[in-house]
């Protein structure tokens, strides 16, 4: 993997671009989050998605009930068992999402320059002149001249089902708008986005809380994607809520930045959250188009320096209906990887797209190619400079392990960890080789029963770039004092060999705790 590491700054022989890439056990260091839905919820479909490179499955509660998602999750468990590939679970909340209510699901035709009224009276039928919405406070939030976007749920931008409205006047609770483009709204659910307008709805709604405390608790979810995060307080409130739900106190909160409010408070949100999801669909409506790339680069850089995963959405919209991405989309995925993104999140492409498996493998291949030209040396120096001196003990060990691995051209870094923190810190320095995170389970008790921790920590590294977890057997010592073959290190090396990452005479860097000390050591494998 290290030998074919190129740099964009170096001259590249053009003919070499056409050389086929070597097959690799890990499709890419960058992770792929897939949203499971109608086109990707059977055991066969999910198994194919896992084999193609999906490592986190997203369950979006904006649509579908708990029973529907439970059925999908049971299929995911069966697929994990069949493919022997780990997969984490992400629950995506509804949050402060505005929706058009179209009970009869009849197609609504809207003509440019005509007038349409948005009303909070949900009992009324949706028509070309009247669109009922699920929020009573819109009239108080908007003013004449404001822009409102209405689009199919998980709109891709290519549909003729998206319409721009301009507020003409506010009449009591109703908002009267001029239609800016002709479109046909078809289906039961449309999301409504008021550009740069504060919506006075809670980030964690009562329905979200109910879903988390029932479906979430039952399934011990690994991540919560907190939709419409606007302030650090949103994350604090969500964490306080999770802390009272037993195992969910370990669930990581990913703040989903969807509007200008979230952008304005980004730094304090990043401090509180475990990771960030850049929801570029809604951000693309809230921000001028020419500013979106700038926010992406700045936000991803801040996440990288904080050592927290950055997830980018809405990359290959056209693959919802097509087998190949556009040139712009392929370049966009590569640029996200070069910016330092940890994971790519696929929404409509896997939820209702025609080619979920092909989309995952295509994105994975693009990520793999982009990683080969990622300037790790420059990134490493920037990160060390940003962290400054004196470094913390753990940060020093992590950066030293990465530097050693690159200097000796190690094929893999193996990190023993119980909380996952050490492995995440190593990944923060973006080594050019995979990091095998060996999670050592810890025995814990709630005074009623004993249990082992570790499964959460292992799955939660499935969203971190370059980190590949394995859960160790708690009976195996992390450091074998005798020559027995039962040491976890041997198990990890065997796993590496079986997956083709490690070969005879390869060098491997190992990061582990021995007593109270943290040790980085380099071993060279024999035949």
From TrEMBL:
Catalytic activity: pyruvate + ATP = phosphoenolpyruvate + ADP + H(+)
Family stated for the protein in its record: Belongs to the pyruvate kinase family.
Species of provenance: Nicotiana tabacum (Common tobacco)
GO MF, one annotated term: kinase activity
Gene that specifies this protein: LOC107773422
One CC-aspect GO term: cytoplasm
Cofactor(s) in the UniProt record: K(+)
Classification via InterPro entries: Pyr_Knase, Pyrv/PenolPyrv_kinase-like_dom, Pyrv_kinase-like_dom_sf, Pyrv_Knase-like_insert_dom_sf, Pyrv_Knase_brl, Pyrv_Knase_C, Pyrv_Knase_C_sf, Pyrv_Knase_insert_dom_sf
Protein name, per record: Pyruvate kinase
Pfam families: PK, PK_C
Pyruvate kinase barrel domain: residues covered: 30-360
Pathway participation: Carbohydrate degradation; glycolysis; pyruvate from D-glyceraldehyde 3-phosphate: step 5/5
The UniProt record lists the keyword Transmembrane: no
Taxonomic placement: Eukaryota, Viridiplantae, Streptophyta, Embryophyta, Tracheophyta
EC nos: 2.7.1.40
Gene3D superfamilies, per database record: Phosphoenolpyruvate-binding domains, PK beta-barrel domain-like, Pyruvate kinase, C-terminal domain
Keyword Nucleus part of the UniProt annotation: no
Record's keyword terms, sorted: ATP-binding, Glycolysis, Kinase, Magnesium, Metal-binding, Nucleotide-binding, Pyruvate, Transferase
Single Gene Ontology BP annotation: glycolytic process
Coiled-coil residues: none
Residues covered by the Pyruvate kinase C-terminal domain: 395-515
């Amino acid at each position: 993997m290290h030998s074919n590491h190129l740099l964009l700054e170096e001259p590249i022989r053009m003919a070499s671009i056409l050389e086929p890439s070597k097959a690799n056990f890990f499709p890419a260091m960058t992770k792929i989050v897939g949203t499971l839905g109608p086109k990707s919820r059977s055991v066969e479909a999910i198994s194919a998605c896992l084999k193609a490179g999906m490592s986190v499955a997203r369950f979006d509660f904006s649509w579908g009930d708990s029973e529907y998602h439970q059925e999908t999750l049971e299929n995911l468990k069966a697929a994990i068992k069949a493919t022997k590939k780990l997969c984490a679970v992400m629950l995506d909340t509804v949050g402060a999402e505005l929706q058009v209510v179209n009970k009869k699901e009849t197609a609504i035709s809207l003509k440019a320059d005509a007038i349409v009224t948005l009303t909070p009276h949900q009992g009324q039928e949706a028509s070309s002149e009247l669109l009922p919405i699920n929020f009573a406070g819109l009239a108080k939030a908007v003013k004449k001249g404001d822009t409102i976007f209405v689009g199919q749920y998980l709109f891709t931008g290519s549909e003729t089902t998206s319409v721009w409205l301009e507020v003409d006047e506010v009449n009591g609770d109703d908002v009267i708008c001029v239609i800016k483009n002709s479109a046909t709204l078809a289906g039961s659910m449309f999301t409504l986005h008021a550009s740069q307008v504060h919506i006075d709805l809670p980030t964690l709604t009562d329905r979200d809380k109910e879903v988390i405390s029932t479906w979430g608790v039952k399934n011990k979810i690994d991540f919560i994607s907190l939709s419409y995060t606007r302030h650090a307080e949103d994350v604090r409130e969500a964490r306080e809520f999770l802390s009272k739900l037993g195992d969910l106190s370990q669930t990581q909160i990913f703040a989903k930045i969807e509007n200008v409010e979230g952008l304005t408070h980004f730094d304090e949100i990043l401090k509180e959250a475990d990771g960030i999801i850049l929801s570029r669909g809604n951000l693309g409506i809230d921000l001028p188009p020419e500013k979106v790339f700038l926010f992406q680069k700045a936000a991803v850089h801040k996440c990288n320096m904080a050592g927290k995963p950055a997830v980018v959405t809405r990359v290959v919209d056209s693959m919802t209906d097509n087998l190949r991405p556009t040139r712009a989309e392929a370049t966009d995925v590569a640029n996200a990887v070069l910016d330092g993104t940890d994971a790519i999140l696929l929404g409509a492409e896997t939820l209702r797209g025609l080619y979920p498996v092909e989309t995952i493998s295509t994105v994975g291949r693009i990520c793999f190619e982009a990683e080969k030209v990622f300037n790790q040396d420059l990134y490493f120096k920037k990160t060390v400079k940003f962290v400054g001196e004196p470094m913390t003990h753990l940060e020093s060990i992590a950066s030293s392990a990465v530097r050693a691995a690159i200097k000796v051209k190690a094929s893999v870094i193996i990190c023993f960890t119980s909380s996952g923190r050490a492995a995440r810190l190593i990944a923060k320095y973006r080594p050019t080789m995979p990091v095998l995170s060996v999670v050592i389970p810890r025995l814990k008790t709630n005074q009623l029963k004993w249990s082992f921790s570790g499964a959460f920590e292992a799955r939660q590294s499935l969203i971190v770039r370059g980190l590949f977890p394995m859960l160790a057997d708690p009976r195996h010592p992390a450091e074998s004092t005798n020559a027995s073959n039962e040491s976890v290190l041997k198990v990890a090396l065997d796993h590496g060999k079986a997956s083709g990452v490690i070969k005879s005479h390869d060098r491997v860097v190992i990061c582990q705790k021995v007593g109270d000390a943290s040790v980085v050591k380099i071993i060279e494998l024999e035949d």
